[in-house]
Amino acid sequence: MNILITGGASGLGESITRTLAEAKGNRVYFTYNNSAAHAKKIEGEFSNAKAVHCDFTDPDSLQSLLAQIESLNIEVLINNAFTGLQTNYFHKTEADYFSENFNKNIVPVIKVTQKAILQFRKQKAGKIITILSSYIINKPPIGLSAYVAEKNYLLSLSKSWAVENAKFNITSNCVSPAMMQTALTSGTDERIIEEMVNNHPLKKLLSPREVSESILYLVNASSQINGINLVINAAADL
Fold it and tell me: Are 129 and 219 within 8 A, CB to CB?
C-alpha cells in the first residue's frame, strides 16, 4: 500500500512513519521540513520509506509536493503536519495570528487532501486519516484557542470528505490523541506534566507508538469504518 504522511519525520509523525514502514507491503512517503537528519535516518533504516521535503509555509514548496502526489500513486493520506503551538489567552492574541495560523496549518491540508481525493476518485479507492487532538473534546485547555479551533475545523472537513466520497470507496477518519511528550509539547512545564500523570486513569501519558498503532488499524480497516473520530485518552475527558 502506498502511503503519504505529512510531517512524518519527527514526534508523532516519526512514530507513524516507522510503524507503517514496519508493516509488510507498505511503501511509505513522508514529508519533512526542519528534520532532515531524522528523515535521513528513517530512510537508512527502512528501504520502503522515502522522504519528501516540503515546507508547508512556502507556497512553492507546497506546490512541488502537490505536483508529486499523482506520480506517487498513493492509496492512503495521513494529515499530520502542524507548525507548532503558542500558548496565550484568547483576548491577548492578535487577530492576525488566527489568520496566519489558518494559512499555515489548514490551507495546506485542504490543498493536499483535494489533490489526494482527485487521485482516489480515479482509483475508486482511498483512505484519509487526519490527526486531531483530544483537546477538542469537552473542555478545551486554557491558552490554546487557535489550536483547538483549527483542529475542530479539520474535524468538520473530515466529516464532509467522508460523506462526499463514500460512494467512491474513499474513507475519511480522524484520530484525536491525548497529550504526548513530543517536540510539539516540549515547552510544557514539568509540573504540569507531573499533574497530568497523577490525574490520568492509567497514571501515565499516552505514547506516540500507541497512537501510531491505532493509525495502522485505520489504514487496514474496512471501508465501512468511515467518518469517525477515534479519541485516544483512556476516557480521561468523559
Answer: yes
